[in-house]
Give the backbone structure.
Amino acid sequence: MKALPLFVVVLLVVSPVLAAADSGGVANQATALDGAAFAQTQPPANETIRVLDITEDSLVQSTVESENIDLGPSLDFAALRAGGQIQKYASIQRIESVGDDVSLRSQLILGELNRVEQRAIALQSAQQSAITQYNADELSSRELLVELARIDAEARDLDDRRIALRELATETPDFSVDPGRLAALERELDTFTGPVRAHATDVLSGNADPTRFSVRTSQDGVVLSTVTDDSYIREVYRGDLRNRDESGLSPTVALDTVAGSYPEVWESRATQNGADVVGAGNSYLVRINHDRGQLFAYVDSGSENVFKEAQIRPLDSVSRGTPATEVKDGLNLTVYRTYPGGPLRIQLNESASDDPIDANVTIGVEASQESTLLGRTGPDGAIWTVSPSSPYTITVIRGNAAVVLTTSPTPTPELSTNTSAPSNSTTTNSQSTPPTETTTAAQ
C-alpha cells in the first residue's frame, strides 16, 4: 500500500501522573509514529470516526495542494530554532548569575514568565491575522502553511522556556510559581501547535518528501490534514467555539463532553490506557488512545465544546469510505470516497483477474483546468491522499488503456457542539490512572 511519502510527528498518550510536571500537550509530545501502540485491526467499512470541522456555511477557503522544500522558510525555521535556544539559555544564565539572592532571582523568573505569556498573546494575534489574510487572498495556501508552521515552531520554543522557568523556580528556596499559571500557559501554547504544522516544517525544510495538504478555513478557524506513508493526520482549531471563561468546568465534564462528541472513539479506547484529562485556565485536554489511533481533544471551559482537535490514524485502521467505481479498457478504478480533507484511498486492478496494477494516478478538481500527479499506485494497486472539498476527477493511463472517474466527497461526520455523554460515562476511566487536573499535579 502506497501513500504520498511523509515523516509524521505523532503524540503519545501518557497518564496524568506522568504529566504532573509536564502536562503533555501537542507541543511537547512529539515522537516517532513507530512508538505508538495501536491495535492494527481493519475497521468496519462503513464506520467513520467523527471529526471537528468547519461547517459548510462558515467555510471561506478550501484547497488541496502539494508542498515541497522551500529554501526561504527553511532558513527562517532554522534561525527561529536557533534564536529560541539562545533566548532560553540567556534567560537561564541571567537568572542563575544572581547566585543566592532569592529576591532578585524570583523577580527575574517572574519577569521571564511574563515575557513568555506576552509572546503567547502575540501568537494568537499572528495566527488570526494569517487566517484573515488567507481568506482575503492576500496569502497563498503555501504562505499560510509557512506562517502556521512558524507559529508552531515559536510556540514549541516558548514551551521549552516555560519548562526551564518552572525548573528554576523549583530550585529557588522559599519561592514557587502558581502551577495553575504554568499549566494554563501550556494549554494556551498548545493552541498554536499540531502534528500537521510540524510536518509542514519538515516538508518545507527538505526533511520530508513533498506531500499534499488539505487547508480549510473559516473566519476564525483552520483545518489542516495530510497522509503519510502509513498514517492520516489531522488538526483543527475553531476560535468561534471559545469564550475563555475559566469557571464552571470540571475534569469529569470535560471527559463527558469528549465521550459524547466522539462516541466511536470513546467506545473503542484502549483498555490499558483509557482516557485521561489535564487542564488549567480556560481549557482542558482529553487524550484517548484507541484501537484505531489517537485523539487529542481540547474542551473550552466556558462553552464546554471541543474547540481544538488533533487525530492520528494509521491507514490500516482507516475505514475505506464509500466506493465509487469505473471500469474501462480492462482497468477497474475504485475511489473510496471520504469527507473533505479526509483520507482518500484510490485502488486500481485488472477488471478480469482483479490483480493490482502499478500505474500513475492524476487528480483534477472541479473548475480547475489542471490535473496533479499523485504518484504511482505501487505493487498493491493502492495510493492514499486527502480528499478535495469539491467534485474531483481521477485519471489513470496505462499504455493505450485509460480510465476516468469523476466523483464527489461525502458529508463530514461532524461533532455535535455542546453535547456530552451521561455523567456516568467516565466510570470506565478507572482502567487507567484517574484524571487529574494539571493545577493540582504540577510542581
